């Protein structure tokens, strides 16, 4: 059997980051920055006041000193008065510091009223401030030409705001990868529909679509398909409009493995030393428009599909999106003991509390235990060479909530 690392390397070799597109900063949330953005503007772009108050020369100040007020400086002012010895200017937060001034006295430290008021002729200081106090210096956040935003950054409202302050209206972004999900099996019926003999609800298309969105992709379709090869072939042709196709079921060694029947020779089918999730398929298919579209075939049992998505689909979506793959983990001790499959890495859905990891079902990593999957907040990883987990054993637990 192939190791998890070997299978992950195989999968990541199937794709490369999608092409970047120049995108308005306000309409790109969810994309990934394709290039470093150096600062075109200094941030702040000029020395400005951090407070509503009075721009002063710190050397003139002492408690009780009166200064002559030479003008008003609102935010957005296009001209400012010079402040000479014994003088000051009323100034608002964000307004440019006038020549001659080297500090700002907040209005609270003067004899002037708060809020809207006539410009006074004189102002008395009640408490002195030091040079530079309440002044935001030009470029103290970022100077022109310095690194602003790094390539690989996930685009967000905060990133758009930063880009605007750095001087950008458009940026090169890799869009969210588009994913199509096909859940195979003639036994599947739509969620909420009555079940006939031998039928089960289609939980996999719901599960995989939600996970792909959680991983940062755009899901363009998610549907169940029966085990008829012609039906699956037709559905697959439509799904190839996506950047990635993810299927569940039909990849094992049974008599009705529709994914294998339709794609064998184009897609590689293998066994991976993991539990759950041993049968896996991966490869590249040719889309009608000539694009090469990676396809991952996951097992049909829902917990197997869930684990496989976290282990293999998640890093492939990150690769397509042009961002680093990060899967946060914590260390926790096993609250109870359980058995492990010989020679296979085990992924057990667990709930973590007070440093203890507890399987969310007594049957542990059973691939059919979908009803309790929502109670887990992590996947505990048991190495291949561990034969039995004992209570108190230290485990790595990967987050499945981020």
TrEMBL record:
Keyword Cell inner membrane: no
Molecular-function annotations in GO: metal ion binding; molybdopterin molybdotransferase activity
Top-level EC class as recorded in UniProt: transferase
Record's keyword terms, sorted: Magnesium, Metal-binding, Molybdenum, Molybdenum cofactor biosynthesis, Transferase
Pathway field: Cofactor biosynthesis; molybdopterin biosynthesis
Gene3D superfamilies, per database record: MoaB/Mog-like domain, MoeA, C-terminal, domain IV, Molybdopterin biosynthesis moea protein, domain 2, Molybdopterin biosynthesis moea protein, domain 3
EC number: 2.10.1.1
CDD domains per the UniProt record, alphabetical: MoeA (cd00887)
Cofactor(s) needed: Mg(2+)
Family: Belongs to the MoeA family.
Descriptive protein name: Molybdopterin molybdenumtransferase
Organism: Tessaracoccus flavus
């Amino acid at each position: 059997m192939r190791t998890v690392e070997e299978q992950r390397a195989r999968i990541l070799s199937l794709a490369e980051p999608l092409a970047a597109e120049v995108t308005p900063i306000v309409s790109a949330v969810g994309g990934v920055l394709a290039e470093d953005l150096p600062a075109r503007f200094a941030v702040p772009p000029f020395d400005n006041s951090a407070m509503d108050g009075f721009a002063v020369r710190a050397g003139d100040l002492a408690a009780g000193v009166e200064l002559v007020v030479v003008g008003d400086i609102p935010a957005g002012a296009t001209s400012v008065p010079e402040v000479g010895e014994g003088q000051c200017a009323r100034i608002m937060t964000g307004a440019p510091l006038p020549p001659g001034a080297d500090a700002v006295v907040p209005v609270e430290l003067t004899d002037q009223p708060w809020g809207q008021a006539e410009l006074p002729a004189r102002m008395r200081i009640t408490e002195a401030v030091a040079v530079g106090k309440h002044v935001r210096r030009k470029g103290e956040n970022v100077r022109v030409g310095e690194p602003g935003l790094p390539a690989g950054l996930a685009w967000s409202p905060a990133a758009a705001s930063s880009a605007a302050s750095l001087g950008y209206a458009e940026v090169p972004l890799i869009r969210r990868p588009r994913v199509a999900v096909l859940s195979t099996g003639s036994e599947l019926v739509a969620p909420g529909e009555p079940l006939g003999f031998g039928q089960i609800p289609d939980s996999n298309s719901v599960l995989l679509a939600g996970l792909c969105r959680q991983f940062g992709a755009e899901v363009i379709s998610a549907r169940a398909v029966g085990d008829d090869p012609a039906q699956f072939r037709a559905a697959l042709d439509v799904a190839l409009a996506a950047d990635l196709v993810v299927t569940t079921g039909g990849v094992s060694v049974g008599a009705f493995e529709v994914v294998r029947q339709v794609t064998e020779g184009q897609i590689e089918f293998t066994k991976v030393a993991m539990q759950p999730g041993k049968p896996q398929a991966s490869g590249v298919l040719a889309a009608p428009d000539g694009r090469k579209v990676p396809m991952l075939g996951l097992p049909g049992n829902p917990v197997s599909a869930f684990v496989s998505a976290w282990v293999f689909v998640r890093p492939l979506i990150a690769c397509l999106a042009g961002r680093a793959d990060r899967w946060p983990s914590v260390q926790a001790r096993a609250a109870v003991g359980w058995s492990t499959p010989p020679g296979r890495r085990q992924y057990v859905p667990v709930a973590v509390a007070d440093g203890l990891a507890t399987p969310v079902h007594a049957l542990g990593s059973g691939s059919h235990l979908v009803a309790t999957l929502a109670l887990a907040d992590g996947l505990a990883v048991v190495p291949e060479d561990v034969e039995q987990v004992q209570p108190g054993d230290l485990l790595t637990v990967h987050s499945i909530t981020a």
